[in-house]
Amino acid sequence: MRIGQWTQSDSLWDKFSQHTVMPFIRSFSCSVRTLYRRFKNGEFDQSKLPMQGKRKPNGHQERRGKQAFKRNIAERETDYASFETEFGHLEGDTIVGVNHKSAVITLVERLSKVIIALKPEGRKAIDIEKATNTWFQSVPKNLFKSITFDCGKEFSNWKNISNTNDIAIYFADPGTPSQRGLNEHSNGLLRKDGLPKEMDFNQVNQDFISSVASKRNHIPRKSLNYQTPLEVFLSYVNEEQLSRLI
Predict the structure, then answer these.
(1) What residue stretches are annotated with the Integrase catalytic domain (predicted)?
(2) Which of 59, 183, 214, 220 is the most interior residue, by most CB within 10 Å?
(3) Integer Rg of the chain from CA
(4) What is the domain extent for residue 8?
């Protein structure tokens, strides 16, 4: 089905969300709301949407294991008064592969929306800790200020991560993914771009996982004034920090 000068089979359509494509399309005459409504009505293929039209139903209850002793997200506002406008705050989670036998750690920087995807050796807390610490060793010290994690028990070694890397760690309230909305949305994009639930992440390497995140980091975002997440991220990094990243 043709929309303006592009069809659903075109690469631009496949890579970008619908409202991101709009500024690059000629002869386009409907609003974002109208466009999404037409998807909902079945005029277009809903599977092309970033989240494929899927949402958890109202009343959904989290049944995964949780860990009790943690710093609540409420403390974050006290510790970082400029949290909403300050660079360097991450949201974190894991996405799980087929049969719940493998996982990928996902981190998202809130201002730039840059996605970092890491492959741990397993799903246990010690695996998450090792992979996270290894990654932090490769980035400039104190570039990141905090992480807000999902409250799953895979992050129960959070104190070790915090102390080793000198970073504050907080946890969202149970059953409230909206407190880490950017991370949840980014996870959906990674699923769409190459890390589906049906994949065994043990069968792919870090380079592949990084390439999936890199693809998304190079796509312009409407919320970033049509800059890419990588462009925005680099605008907050000084030359000394940049030399350690590349």
Answers:
(1) 73-237
(2) 183
(3) 19
(4) 2-48
